[in-house]
Amino acid sequence: MMSEEATQILAVAKSVLAGTDPLPLPPGLSERAIETPWVASHFRGGERVLDIGFTMSSLDYLGLLLELRKSRGVTIEAIDIVKPERVVRRYPADWVADVLAVPITIGDVRTLELPASRYDIATCISTIEHIGFDEATHADPATAFARSTTADGVKLHRDADVNAKVLAQLGRALRPGGVLLISVPMGKGGPALLRDSLGLYCAQWEYDAASWREIVEAPEFDIVEQQFYRCDADHVWRAVSAPEDLVEQSSALQPHAAGCALAALRRR
Ligand SMILES: C[S@@+](CC[C@H](N)C(=O)[O-])C[C@H]1O[C@@H](n2cnc3c(N)ncnc32)[C@H](O)[C@@H]1O
């Protein structure tokens, strides 16, 4: 059930947590190879965390969250529009009890009433690009999301205030000095058409310099760090300096992103 890729990335993330030298990852992996070890590098243990977009987590990232909870004294609470019980088959059987034990609030992070100043860390990894596009289904046994069987049927517009709303909500939930870890696909910018694992069509927002600024220059936060990576033609991820180095990249109808950006932002 766990892919070779997820197994390798989780092993590297765990070695980052343990402070040992991680083995280099092979070429040909998705952006998860950058994101999940990077998240691991920001934990010291004992933090109270709010994770946005928990339910459909890739297994490398989910494995990291469960490891933080089990062995590092990290408290995790989550938010998603989909209940984990709806997609329980996507989790390895021996993880299910631990996944379902994570307290989760079901709803749109933009509009839920979040507790003020409760969390040390908020994680929003490969999630904000889906907000405003994904819609949960509650009755359809075939798919957890309302998705289109044709490319033409996909809504490519999302509200212009998604970034501002999400950042304001996470700014409220974090304590002053708390840290938001956020990552996005980055490329030429704008809506990108995707096909999901069921072959259905959907869209995500691919970030560019302007839409990234809406995140890192949000008034609730100061930038601690930001990083940019490009997946080159040899399928190796390399660090680059700025969003402008990614303008040729596109995730449209690709199996994974061709560029990504990550930021740690401190709540003012
Ligand atoms: C691609 S998954 C990312 C999962 C995980 N963070 C990871 O990095 O593997 C995006 C998640 O965001 C959730 N999501 C989409 N729109 C949302 C919204 N408005 N509020 C909260 N969660 C949302 C989806 O249901 C899905 O679980």
Describe, in plain words, how this protein is organized in 3D.
With 268 residues, the chain is of the alpha/beta class. It has a single domain, classed as Vaccinia Virus protein VP39 (Rossmann fold). It is built from six helices and ten strands, in the order ααβαβαββαβββαβββ. It has helices at 4-18, 32-40, 59-71, 96-100, 162-173, 209-216, and strands at 48-52, 75-80, 104-106, 119-125, 174-185, 190-195, 201-206, 221-231, 237-240, 259-267. Strands 3-2-1-4-5-10-8-9 form an eight-stranded mixed β-sheet. The mean pLDDT is 95.
Low-pLDDT segments, ≥5 res = none
State the CATH topology.
Rossmann fold
- Percent of residues in helices comes to 10-25%
**Intertermini distance:** 42 Å
What would the keywords be for this entry?
alpha/beta; 268 residues; 6 helices; binds S-adenosylmethionine; Rossmann fold
